[in-house]
Amino acid sequence: ATTALGVAAQAALETAGGAPALEPAASSLLLPAQGLATKKQRELYVGNLTANAISAEGLRELFASLCAALPDHDDSRGPAVINAQLCEGGMFAFVEMQTEALASTMLRFHGLEVAGRPMKIGRPAGYLDPPHGPVPPLDVPMEVLKELGISGQVGPARVDVLGQHIDARKRRELYVGNLTAGAVSGVMLRDAITRVLAGALGGDGGGNPIVRNAEIQAGGMFAFVEFRDEPTATMALALLNGHDLCGRPLRVGRPAGYTEMGGAPEAPTAASLGAPSYIPPPPAPEVAPRPPPPIYESVEEPELLG
User: Fold this and answer.
1) What's the mean pLDDT when you consider all of the chain?
2) Is the pLDDT at 49 greater than 80, yes or no?
3) Least CB-packed of 78, 133, 136, 141 within 10 Å?
């Protein structure tokens, strides 16, 4: 069974990219017994995915292969996975299982590595235990867990999807400082960064722009730039720091609130680059006092000679 699981999981991961998201399954696929369970009780939040690394179809097949490796799973009752929906450019997803028991069981696969990252599997926001009490999970053989390199320990009981959304944006955003105040607009900064990265990426991204947004702050002294995904932001961090713009070297770092993932080395942040939360306007230049008006002494006019 474990060999079959490894083959099935590998085949599922190879479907990554390009496959369309699944449409919600027809209601005829739901069994009468499932009427006792709400969608939230059959649904899972799957996070910490690499953007564009796996399709909705690939994710569905991955979870289906995990169910197929369970000795107590009855595949004659229909598809184990009803639907898989990717969100935020494929950085997290919602997976609806056939039954509450399968949803409870999939929690034990928290930490399974996909495309180099451990998946976070948890209950979605709004989940409530059913009135008759939590449905116990199916048995997961230890040899299956060992083959997949996971402990079987259940992850967080709830997942803050809003927090995950904010974290996802922070991971594709950069602080860009040391701008010449008043000389750089958001459009100018976006175009300049796009030109630098397009050379490294071999194109400007076409319908998927490299830079989503560039927002100038503090009267033009620094900006926050949002990229299309985290890998692009990471590349920009390496290429743009020290890059000359309007005669000044850019100071580029991660924004406040950014959290590293996967044990990557810590990158400079906006705070470490000296960006304050508020930059006061420059003091008005001192004006030298005006000198007093000259004093003209009265001079008697000379008498005209006759």
Assistant:
1) 76
2) yes
3) 133
User: 220: Cβ–Cβ under 8 A, 6 or more apart, which residues?
Assistant: 179, 180, 181, 182, 183, 184, 185
Which ranges constitute the DSSP H helices of the chain? Answer: 2-13, 39-42, 56-68, 100-106, 142-148, 161-171, 186-201, 230-240
The pair of structure tokens assigned to 78 is 């229909």
Q: How far apart are alpha carbons 187 and 237 in whole angstroms?
A: 19
DSSP string, 277-297: S--PPPPPPP-PPPPPPPPPP
| Contact (CB, 8 A) for 165 and 88 | yes
Query: Which neighbouring-strand residues pair with 211?
Result: 227
SS3 204: coil
d(CA 302, CA 40): 110
pTM of the model: 0.48
Asked if residues 29 and 94 have their Cβ atoms less than 8 Å apart, the reply is no
Pick from 117-131, 158-172, 230-244 the range whose average pLDDT is largest.
230-244
DSSP helix/strand/coil, 50: coil
Rounded to whole angstroms, how far apart are CA atoms 304 and 48?
A: 104
Using CA atoms, how far apart are residues 56 and 23, in angstroms rounded to an integer? 10
| Cβ neighbours of residue 140 closer than 8 Å, sequence gap 6 or more | 70, 105, 108, 109, 152
Q: Which amino acid is at 169?
A: R
